[in-house]
Amino acid sequence: MAVESTVPQLEREVTDEKRSVSDVEDIKQRDDVEKAAVESVSDEQSVTIIQKAEDVAVQVISTEDDPTLPVFTFRVVVLGIGLSAFGSVLATIYTFKPQNASVSQLFCLIIAYVLGTAMHSLLPSHGVWSYLNPGPFNIKEHSMIVIMASTASTMAVATEIIAAMDLFYDIRLNAAAAIFQTFATQMIGYGVAGLLRTLLVYPTYAFYPSYIPVVSLLQSLHFGGLLNHKKRRYFWIVFAAIFFWEWIPQYPFPLLTAISIICLADNGRHAFVRNLFGAGSSNEGIGLLSFSTSWTLITQGSPLVWPLQTQVNSYLGMALGYIVLTSVYYSNIFNGRDLPFMSTSLFGSDGETYNQTAILTPDSRLNMTALQSIGLPRYTATYAVSQLAYNLSLGASIVHIFLWNWKDLKSAFGKFNFMRNVHDIDDPHYIEMKKYKEVPQWWYLSLFLVSLGVGIGCSYSAKIVLMPAWSIIVFTILSAFLAVFLGFITATTGFSISIKYGIQILAAFIHPGEPITVMYANLYGNSNCFQTLYMLQDLKLGQYTKLPPRWTFAAQMGGSIVGAIFNYTMMRSIVSNNRLVLQDPLGTRIWSGWVIQQYNSASVAMGALGKELFTFGNPYWLVPFAMFMGLFMPIPFWVVHKLLKRKGLEESWLAKAAAYINTPILLLYIGYLPYSVNGQWWSCVVIGFASQWWARKYRPGWFKKYNYLTSAALDGGSQVILFILSFAVFGASGNEVPFPTWWGNPGEGLSADRCKST
């Protein structure tokens, strides 16, 4: 009886204990909810407003790390290689599109997350299977896959140049030489990036604004807690919304990609209206007061990501661009009034596409006799201004960094500090990374030297010498020097300064009359520099997500190898199937060779005819001279700021304005508009100020938690639907399915915004 009476008592005690545990859990959950609610209510009152742009790296990105998480797993191998191949193919397709689209890291990130979590759910995890499925898909695996895929998901300049030689010179490299050359030029940049870590990866000021959404999303997907659950739910809602919206402006209703009241009223009747206000089609106009509802276009201006200072300088540059571009064209300053308003092609004296093959010998050198008969080529006025503005920006960027960031340069390079692996840097993310083995500097130096040797060897593998060894070395050293200054601008502002025109003009004077060599100088002088910047950003991503440095190194190497192979393979397929369209200066709505045509135009105009076009007294002598003019542009603003600071007036509006002006960005944007489509910029202005000024100042809690996550969701959803449309209806699979013509989708007679009559 005692036993029988004890049993119910024990059952009641166990039940009470379970109820007690349950109650504790309920109370804890309620506390979490109440705490979150209280935080939400008081958020905007208590959260500190982000004052400095670089504070985003500390206040938005967590330093949390779990060193026990597995990194190199079966999932990493399968998804890393698979998404690298996929991203490389997609990037190649976008290169031959009229829109200036690219493969977002966020696109790769989202696909990797879906597949990685699916593999964890579906694969067995017991016994020997634990090697294939070691646990939940974690942030370090995810980061390694993203770095591999993003490294591969950029169309290599080497492949673009190979395409230009095929399309316009009928020169085809064998597959092995082309792939090895692509890989080598990428690895030269990687070697330089490793040597610049002290200056452009480890410190807090090098925060790479465009990577903040990527890291914010990674941490939201993988870190626990009620807040991150809410952030994940928010992400997928925004992702789904843009996914279902973006196909509308992209396919059945393209008028929504560039809405212009003035264009709708004019309906394509007047060329001036088209040139100034048109923006719906490639090379149509510069898009004054044109608004877009397509995030695929809007995201090119990074309005949710770039610091407000970067955006304001770009908008000031564009405002000047509207005036300068229109004035130069209608004043016939570059003798281009009878040419199209916008085009990157070369034109003859008759206004038709320039017959470049007629002035070149079979070995691609200048034929002076033929030149005297045919005459010199001409640029469109807006393209000439664009080159001039880019060269002004290049000169300004060097002096700007010397003036405003001298202490940082001295700290990184003084006493050869950049060659040491131990540094006195107080960045919290860098401090967390000290537990992992760093990649020695000699690894990067060895990679640089070996890749340089491979690149030189490939240059001698064609039927002609593409570029002599000494010249490759000279331009590689120059690109490494420029990477310091351009990398500083990218790391602190999110913006990349273009140096391609400056490099090509310099090459034209070093190799006069040799268009192929000038084109290859762009590869070793320009491409190497930007590969350095890409690699630096991925190294920073590894630091943010606490990926061990040696695995970051392996991920970038693997992505580069896969990318080089698929870049070349897909390029050959597109060029073979769309040859005539890609050679046409205007292209179509589906395919365009405007990216490749720039290399060809530069190689002929600067390579074969540099002396005839760009020396003093000739038509475009101001274009190269602009590099020297640009050196002086930052000085007045720096002098004004310093003088006022010495007088104790550094808080005056004039001193602040002088410090706020970023001359490299402002100057470049004067010539930024004569390309592709321009319907998005006024939407960028509205969204940029709403995010980086209003939300950051008046809704700081929302800004820190959701601003960059919103950017990630919008980029990811729009990239996914654009990929689907590219293969389903835009002809990437070989079969185009045009949407029926209606008012919102004009036919062949009008451009997408009804501003250009064809």
Descriptive notes:
With 758 residues, this protein is mainly α. The protein has a domain of 409 residues. Helix content is 64%, strand content 0%. The longest helix is centred in the first third of the chain and has 45 residues.
List keywords for this structure.
single chain; 758 residues; mainly alpha; 0% strand; globular; disordered N terminus
* Rg from alpha-carbon coordinates: 28 Å
Helix percentage: 55-70%
What ranges have pLDDT less than 50 throughout 5 or more consecutive residues? Answer: 1-42
Tell me the β content. Answer: under 5%
Number of extended strands: 0
Shape: globular
Intertermini distance: 101 Å
Average of the residue pLDDT scores: 85
What is the tally of helical segments?
A: 32
Q: Main beta sheet: strand number and arrangement?
A: none
Secondary structure layout:
Layout: H1 2-46, H2 56-59, H3 74-95, H4 105-122, H5 139-152, H6 157-169, H7 175-195, H8 197-200, H9 212-222, H10 226-250, H11 261-266, H12 271-277, H13 295-298, H14 308-330, H15 368-374, H16 381-404, H17 406-413, H18 428-433, H19 441-459, H20 469-493, H21 500-510, H22 515-545, H23 549-577, H24 579-583, H25 594-608, H26 610-614, H27 622-630, H28 635-646, H29 653-660, H30 663-670, H31 681-698, H32 700-728
Biased composition (Basic and acidic residues): 10-28
Pfam families: OPT
Keywords: Membrane, Peptide transport, Protein transport, Transmembrane, Transmembrane helix, Transport
